[in-house]
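Please, structure for the following, as tokens.
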Amino acid sequence: NTSSAPVGAYIYDAVSGVDSASIAMYVEGGTVSGCGISGTSASCSVYGLAEGAHNILVSASDLAGNSASATGYLSVDTGLPQITNLKPTGTVSKTTATISAYLADAGSGINAATAAVYLDGAALTGCTMTSSSASCNVYSLAETAHSYSVQVADRAGNIASASGSFTVDTRITTKYLRLTATGGDCAQIGNWNNTTKTCTLVSGYTFASNGIIIEGDGITLDGGGYTLTGAGGFTNGISASIKSNVSVRNIRVRQFRYGVSFVSVNNAIITGNNFNSNTYGVSLQNNTGARVYGNNFNANTTQASISGGSGNLFHLALPLGGNWWSNYDTAGEGCIDADSNGFCDAAYSFTGGSDGLPKVLPF
């Protein structure tokens, strides 16, 4: 991997012996001078060699006048390997990724055994290394920025490295449920039943801003027990405006400003859900005839709020009752169940409304 190299040969004659004065060394047809020559060997240093292969010829005679020659070659490779097309870059939306790169060397070729990939300073194992590529699968990546590097040597020992970076962000954009054959964006997050107008989630999702917006009358969002996670700030987990007969059920909603925000919605049903660590669990503004029951309200800054509208109920008749409230489920908080029916004997009051049959234990 340099432009100079030692060149040598062992010379032997068992009968008359080697005529050391006859020994000569040639590189690309030119005589090499300054060699160290003895009766059995020749050793020369060659300088200023160009990149690529070079022919070597050694000739000698014995003391009886018999001559012989032998040929060889050497290759000069001082160039670094090329590492290109590093992936991934930018933002990836999953916590798994494949770190890969193309490898090439125009001289001696890539030594795949020397290839190594490092992620955030740690060497990766289980990778696939060839003379033309490096590939490593990584799992359970944290949602943050990551840096990686690829290093490899060629067969001449020249070492090169290249680095890249990417950010893991699994948050998705706002999805809209609409009265179309596919339910609007439902196919991106769940399964759509066009007969019942129901979108059933198939996974949990983290949103970069607002979550799911219901844009059609009679639509039901069924969470399938999965969780919607927000980015905080002024965001809505599930929202609807000026709609009728929409339902939200069987879903977990956390870390939004509003878990559910319904504005001017008629006859909404919100049941079987968990609202956790939102600024507002459920907010109803100018709604009419909402039924909110069978939900868990856990550690929301404001558990629920009603502003304007009429006929909105947070409990149904027994045995269904109302909701569980994390700040109203012990005697010290006012929840006393003297008749042991599983419901507090006194109503739970929240901003603009009340739950007449609050649950003692979570659903």
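The longest strand covers residues 52-62. The helical segments are 186-189.
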